[in-house]
Design goal:
The protein is about 30% helix and about 20% strand. The strands form 2 sheets. It has a 9-stranded mixed sheet.
């Protein structure tokens, strides 16, 4: 099997991952010891594929796959066997994973409403954690989970991987150099023809293929619905919408490049204007975030109905940084005030986000997207949520953080 370099970036397509079989024991004792890893809820994001990519290089053994969708769990275990030569255990309940003493670390890529509960339970069980964004569904669980992580001493990497691109690292260095001048406005429009949750729907899924109650988790009981289970990103009880799924990458990148922590004020509007169906997440959104201490205004927008109008720009007094392209080898570009490209921005030295997590498990150093950076993007997105629900501007000073 080919062993890819740590500088290769793998995008978001993957197999997913539930019966117990191989059982591998071990613990982290030194730089050359094996790390036993479990994957909770692989889905379509690709964390399993990334873990496999760096398994040999990092001394990782994927000991267990856990998912409430049995067929996907089988596929995930088969993929590991094909790529790494062994088959991991297959589990349904995350609690069975966290109770195992032989598992050192977990990847959490479950539906959004499960993230905080699983993260808190994992660090209390002594596991290091890579947790997908968004970090939290509401402010109460956000504050509790951040406190649990801080008290645990465990390594926690939040899955805002755009900050680990060489382009982002280079842009941060460029910004700190002052060559762009004072930034006063940062904007992103991220649009597409259809909502991202449409492609995930599996209308023929049968209840016998999944554990519906484990999926519901801490939500109210209801009859099985294959669309809710498979396209949960379109339902606000399980996913709040684009501000917690897409905007978090944007605002985390803004925070990383500029050094800003939280917006002081947030105003947001959202509605469904094109894709009117049984799903409850909005297909259009506009968010304004004010960072007066940092000297700039931030705007984020998404509409699902057209793929036109996409951009991501940092507007500075001396020029503009175009940060639209997100890939491992592509730099951002620098533009003059009239929009004319003057050349590529520098690429910085970086390590793949997943590889950085594995490195930090051994070194016990702070990962590139630690819990504090996760707190920053979570506060911004949840302030937007509060603004949408309450129909008003939300101020940071009213939050008990």
């Amino acid at each position: 099997m080919r062993n890819p370099s740590r500088r290769e970036f793998i995008g978001s397509a993957a197999v997913a991952a539930v019966t117990v079989g191989s059982g591998v024991t071990g613990s982290i004792a030194g730089a050359n010891d094996r790390i036993n890893l479990a994957v909770l809820g692989v889905g379509q994001r690709g964390l399993l594929k990334e873990a496999v990519q760096f398994a040999d290089e990092s001394g990782i053994r994927i000991t267990a796959i856990c998912d409430t969708w049995r067929g996907r769990c089988d596929q995930g275990a088969t993929y590991v066997k094909e790529m790494l030569g062994y088959e991991p255990d297959k589990l349904i309940d995350y609690r069975d994973v966290l109770s195992r003493k032989d598992i050192d670390a977990v990847l959490i890529s479950t539906p959004d409403h499960q993230h905080c509960t699983m993260l808190s339970a994992a660090v209390k069980a002594g596991k290091d954690v890579y947790v997908e964004k968004p970090l939290a569904y509401d402010f109460d669980e956000l504050k509790k989970t951040v406190a649990d992580v801080r008290a645990s001493g465990q390594v926690v990497q939040v899955g805002t991987q755009i900050r680990s691109l060489p382009a982002s690292v280079g842009a941060r260095e460029l910004y700190e150099s002052g060559k762009l001048g004072k930034a006063f406005k940062i904007e992103q429009s991220r649009n597409s023809r259809v909502p991202f949750w449409h492609q995930k729907a599996r209308p023929n899924l049968k209840e016998s293929e999944v554990d519906w109650n484990l999926f519901l988790f801490n939500r109210e009981e209801r009859r099985f619905d294959p669309d809710v289970y498979s396209a949960w990103m379109g339902y606000r009880e399980f996913c709040l919408g684009v501000h917690t799924q897409l905007m978090v990458h944007f605002i985390d990148t803004v925070h990383y490049i500029t050094g800003a922590e939280f917006p002081e004020k947030v105003t947001a509007l959202a509605g469904t204007y094109v894709h009117k169906d049984q799903r409850t997440c909005a297909d259009s959104m506009e968010v304004l975030m004010d960072y007066p201490k940092d000297g700039f205004l931030v705007r984020y927008g998404t509409f699902f109905g057209s793929g036109d109008g996409n951009f991501f720009r940092f507007f500075g007094e001396n020029g503009t940084l175009n940060a639209l392209r997100w890939s491992w080898d592509d730099p951002f570009t620098i533009e003059e005030r009239d929009g004319k490209a003057t050349g590529p921005a520098p690429l910085g030295r970086s390590t793949h986000h997943m590889m950085n997590f594995f490195d930090c498990i051994r070194s016990r150093e702070k990962p590139s997207a630690d819990i504090e950076s996760g707190l920053g993007h979570a506060v911004a997105s949840l302030m937007a949520e509060k603004s949408i629900v309450e129909g008003r501007t939300v101020s940071l000073k009213e939050l008990d953080l």
